[in-house]
Design brief:
alpha/beta, Rossmann fold, Helicase, Ruva Protein, domain 3, 3 domains, 19 helices, 16 strands
Length: about 450
């Protein structure tokens, strides 16, 4: 399961085996939720989000086989199941695998065997979607997450405002998943198309409507039926297009270019703009009636410079993604690099931060990124690289990078890496916990 974070549900009442497996999975880069009883696990699995379930057969309150059948009856047993037991028999193993279980292991077994089994499932595991992640740790983004949770299940139109690059489409996609997750999400950048092309894309056209229209095309309004239509940079539309948009929004019918019959459509409308549309209305450059239709609920996404807490949080995630795409150990930021990121004004916002870190990952050989690796000219108020770092921070970063490199060289085999470093297996695990090292770069749980 190289690179991408994977969430595992472990169900085992054995305190020794459960703790050992949970810790090992965490150290290998997975998120592991450990349950000692079956009923709480069923409730957690039912909420979704797990990529695999490791389940003991004999539990104090319910058998692992009953858990599996219960979830199958609810239609939730698509998550790969690996059964583990100390009292296994061939007939039971064959029966469970025929019924859809991914695999079956008899205790005691080598944890590496279990990890290999999970690796074999790599092609079928579902990676957690982007919307499952919080928007950020800053108060502004935590509040925005709270608003999305309340707005998502409603059908109200939403207007998202914010500077270019702040992540308005990500907000729209998360809103869609919270409201109509099984339905289509259709997006179009209104500022990227000419008026003629935009009309053809939105409304579709009948065969023969114009030169080159060799077949009937369903427009985006139709494609978004029962789902969400996201109109990005809607402030770039012409007055004539605004009239046409308003008619569809009010009547919930669309007439294709070259057509005569109205086609009923039902969709949730989410629009976005990097301009203040209210000012455009006052200047006569945007229709007031359309603005009122769009602006049922308005969400403002603050620029990155107004939410400094999000910068290192986002940076760590972008570094993990870069490493996953290149099958490398995630690079780390030095204390001075973190300081430089928070002092930079970010005119391009989150998009600029992502591109800057991607460039640094490609062009920098070392594991620890300093300010000079990120910026051609670091902020003037910052001393070069690690000059301002405390000795403890500097030593921790160096030790962390050295251990990560050794783990990568040994393909994350714990015992081989410990031998390579000349320390015990337990000593390596303790250092990994202390320095928050895991395969996907997420913090290792201290307990």
């Amino acid at each position: 399961m190289n690179g991408m974070p994977t969430r595992i549900c472990l169900i085992d009442d054995d305190p020794v085996m459960g703790e050992a497996l949970s810790l090992r999975l965490e150290l290998e880069g997975h998120t592991c939720d450990w349950f000692k009883l079956g009923q709480p696990a069923i409730q957690a699995i039912g909420k979704g989000g797990y990529h695999a379930v490791i389940c003991d057969i004999q539990l104090p309150d319910i058998s692992g086989e009953e858990i599996f059948h219960s979830l199958r009856e609810e239609g939730r047993a698509m998550t790969p199941f690996i059964f583990i037991t100390g009292f296994g028999n061939v007939d039971q193993a064959v029966r469970l695998i025929k019924q859809g279980a991914a695999d079956y292991l008899i205790k005691p077994f080598d944890p590496d065997t279990l990890l290999d089994k999970l690796g074999l499932l790599r092609g079928t595991l579902k990676i957690a979607p982007d919307h499952a992640e919080p928007l950020g740790p800053s108060p502004a983004m935590v509040f925005l997450d709270h608003l999305l949770a309340r707005i998502g299940p409603t059908q109200s139109s939403v207007l998202i405002t914010g500077e270019s690059g702040v992540g308005k489409e990500r907000i729209a996609r998360k809103l869609h998943v919270l409201g109509r997750p099984e339905q289509p999400f259709v997006a179009v950048n209104c500022g990227a198309l000419s008026e003629t092309l935009l009309e053809a894309e939105l409304f579709g056209y009948e065969k023969g409507a114009f030169t080159g229209a060799n077949k009937t095309k369903h427009g985006l309004f139709e494609q978004a039926h029962d789902g969400t239509l996201f109109l990005d940079e809607i402030s770039e539309t012409s007055p004539a297009m605004q009239v046409k948009l308003l008619r569809v929004i009010e009547e919930r019918q669309v007439i294709r270019v070259g057509g005569e019959t109205g086609i009923g459509v039902d969709f949730r409308l989410v629009a976005a703009s990097n301009q203040d549309i209210k000012n455009l209305v006052e200047d006569g450059r945007f229709r007031q009636d359309l603005y009122f239709r769009l602006n049922v609920i308005q969400l403002r996404v603050p620029p990155l410079r107004e939410r400094l807490d999000d910068i290192p949080w986002l940076a760590e995630r972008f570094l993990n993604v870069c490493a996953a795409h290149r099958s490398r150990v995630p690079k780390r930021l030095s204390p001075a690099a973190r300081q430089a990121l928070q002092q930079y004004p970010w005119p391009g916002n989150v998009r600029e931060l992502k591109h800057l870190l991607e460039r640094a990952c490609v062009l920098t050989d070392g594991q620890v990124l300093g300010p000079n690796d990120l910026f051609d000219k670091p902020p003037a108020s910052l001393a070069p690289d690690l000059a301002n770092a405390k000795l403890g921070d500097y030593l921790n970063e160096c030790e962390r990078a050295y251990i990560c490199q050794a783990l990568h060289e040994q393909d994350w085999r714990i015992q081989e890496t410990a031998n390579r470093l000349g320390i015990s297996r337990k000593g390596l695990w303790e250092k990994m916990k202390k320095l928050a090292i895991s395969r996907n770069g997420e913090a290792v749980r201290a307990d």
